[in-house]
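Technical note accompanying the year-one report. For the benefit of new consortium partners, we illustrate the data format agreed upon in the data management plan: each record pairs a sequence with a structure-token string. No post-processing was applied to the example shown here.
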Amino acid sequence: MATKFLSLACIRGTGAGDGYSRGLSPRPHYPSMPKYPKGMSADMESSMDRSERRALFSVTGMTCSACAGSVEKAVKRLPGIKEAVIDVLNNRAQVMFYPSFVNEETIRETIEDVGFEATLIMEETNEKSTQVCRILIKGMTCTTCSSTVESALGSVHGVQRAQVALATEEAEIHYDPMTLSHDHLLNTIEDTGFEAILISTGEDVSKIHLQIDGPWNDGSMLIIQESLQALPGVEKIEFDTNLKKCSLSYKPDLTGPRNFIQVIESTGSGFKAKIFPKGNGRDSHRQEEINQYYKSFKWSLVFTIPVFLTSMVFMYIPGLKHGLDTKIVNMMTVGHLLRWILSTPVQFFIGRRFYTGSYKSLRHGSANMDVLIALGTNAAYFYSVYSVLRAAASPHFEATDFFETSAMLISFILLGKYLEVKAKGKTSEAIAKLMDLTPDTATLLTFDTEGNVVNEEEIDSRLIQRHDVIKIIPGAKVASDGFVTWGQSHVNESMITGEARPVGKRKGDTVIGGTVNENGVLYIKATRVGSESALSQIVQLVESAQMAKAPVQKLADRISKFFVPLVILLSFSTFLAWFVAGKFDGYPESWIPSSMDSFQLALQFGISVMVIACPCALGLATPTAVMVGTGVGASQGVLIKGGQALESAHKVNCIVFDKTGTLTIGKPLVVNTRLLKNMVLREFYELIAAAEVNSEHPLAKAIVEYAKKFRDDEENPIWAEAHNFESITGHGVKAIVHNKQIIVGNKSLILNNGIPISIDSEEILTEIEGLAQTGILVSIDNQLTGILAISDPLKPGAREVISILKSMKIKSLLVTGDNWGTANSIAKEVGITDVIAEAKPEDKAEKVKELQGSGLVVAMVGDGINDSPALVAADVGMAIGAGTDIAIEAADIVLMKSNLEDVITAIDLSRKTFTRIRLNYIWALGYNLLGIPIAAGVVFPFTGFRLPPWIAGAAMAASSVSVVCCSLLLRNYRRPRILETLEIQGITTV
């Protein structure tokens, strides 16, 4: 789903495969057919959805996108077809259909009627469907929490994959919707002791929240619910009485938010409805968490500051000291009682979150940071209670309390959590900036039956429905994805595509929501709204990337499993060692402070060890850096699909480049024609254009485009019909036009058909290839008739990029389907010495595997469907943003701007991110390795330095904050300076 937007959004051209790989060209996109047969009501459709089936066919004989298009159109003409997807690359057809109207056999016969052999793949017919659900999880504190939730979800029958990210506090679950529902997943998370809030279900539905003002009661709500439920496309309705909120899930192609508001306000009960105020998503939950920690910290200070003053300040002021030392019962003083009273609310009310977290964690057989805090503070608090009660019961026992330890410890930890959550919120600022691109309002147009505008109304942009017509004035942002129905202007799409130059738009052209209209008025018909929009798809892609764990995260996950139990063991051992040493005079009495005895000294050391250890810093080291890194990448036009891609990219030491559309612009032009027979040039191009128009290959399009020049009176000429058309992958095409056998392709195709190539023709080919042009041979009736020279100019900066990669000690190769002469000329021009030419798609993938076998970490940069196998095979696949859907789907990194310079940006950003991750690990592990021994009193015998528990707690809180802040420094990332020099040389690197 995340790639579909790219064909509309960033991508104004089709990708170009190399050479003459016709059978692997991008397939055309045909308009979606109705989801149910004509005459079916919406209610019938709703019932049919539950009985839809999926069939997978093996289709042999397809050679190009024209074949795929004919199969797709034929299948979609059948009644009861919901969707048909034809995969030329794998020779498969997947069809979603309603068995009440059509069956597998009818579909198979239809495919064979088109001229291809089709076989139903029985074992995959009932393949389980997969749905992706995203859930916000509140209450996780460390990797132990996230691992517990992940394990619980993974054990649920029907869950195929579950990822829980501590930094984003989200879970992404891939599951079979036929086996379980998202409600089951929510319950599973809540059973582990955490609060779960559904973000999205991945269903083909949109969700909107409405605020309803009016007389809320059971009767009126029932009326509103029944009225809304009667609308076609409404899936689910939920009411929140406290917030006066109504949440609706619906199918956007059948209804929309304006319909809901109209229905609610027409119930006659005096209700008013509007879009719920912004901030009801993840950001609002983050802000709510920040507010909760801030409020808790403020209240803890109200009680902790007096505790601190009475125990550490007032004791040195004579008058106040006398008052605090006044005895109440036996040896219990006013100071003891005051500190007990003041610390109790902090321990049990303000700090109750730690008790709750500990209980939930231990209930599921794991231990997290809350367990350490609860044990440490309880040890200090209850020992103090015991000491004070003993003093109250004894006329001789002088109590020493640690109430300030428990109160100050909780206060500092709350401060640390507040700063940590606030800092974590900044790691996803890149997503927030993307979401802010869409305008708040839009101008909705209403038309009469003759198509004249009768009304203009300003509405909330979230109220736009599919098929609405929106007016965009100069300087305004486009409110929705759609196409121009009237007007002409230029639109700045740089915020989406990275292309700085405004793009001309006229009737029929597509526009992207969030882009800026430069001049002229445009009427836009909305086609993709809400979560379907290009901008939303980009946001979802970045969010998914931030969810994915980097392999290096496994280290923290492994450590977290035994970290807390080990710390508890160390803490108890520390206490025991100091206590036993004190009992048996293992150290001088002078070491014991005057205010405590050996037991209390041992207790302080034990508590300090327990609270200074920080599993949080370790758990946040990787995800926060990945979050910031992927966010920064998105703002730079480099979409990195998760931690795996980010980690692999920094190790890359070899890059394989495709040629057409990657090193070159990808828009080939016919620059010369050499006729070898006496023939009128117009007639010559009429014949070869009739054959080539059936191919989607860039070279074929260049030939057809050039042939149009001989018909300058026609914008879209109709060419003669081509019979027996055949596309030979990687070579060219054959067809019969006007009873003449036409062959257009490379040298090997001509020779394979037994057509001789003269010495003069060989010399012409050599000359063409020496100019870095592609030579295309044309045979008519088995006689070589002409040679076309096609040029595809190099991209600006291609030579410089290869040179910079060489300085980064990264090896560059060129692998192309083009001929050797052209490939060598292009390679020489850019400075590449290793070349593989006339390579088929499988050859490219094999070359990548061969390089990997020699110990290299390989990245593949390509843009065409024929690059997809190599993109998948490579350690890191990088797709040029203007490439095809399949290439983008196969890639790990998408270069949105289609600039080669971004290859360097992606690798450099990956290296900087992993440098930051290493620093985070060094800090987190080093902190614990250094802090725990100090807290245990290892240096005390030599220096007399002792770490009080409350200072240890403050240090623990600071460690998490420091790790997050270290990751946040990545926000200041700047591309390598050497790329800026390209601009000075006149090469634009936007």
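Partners are asked to follow this layout when depositing records. The chain has a mean pLDDT of 76.
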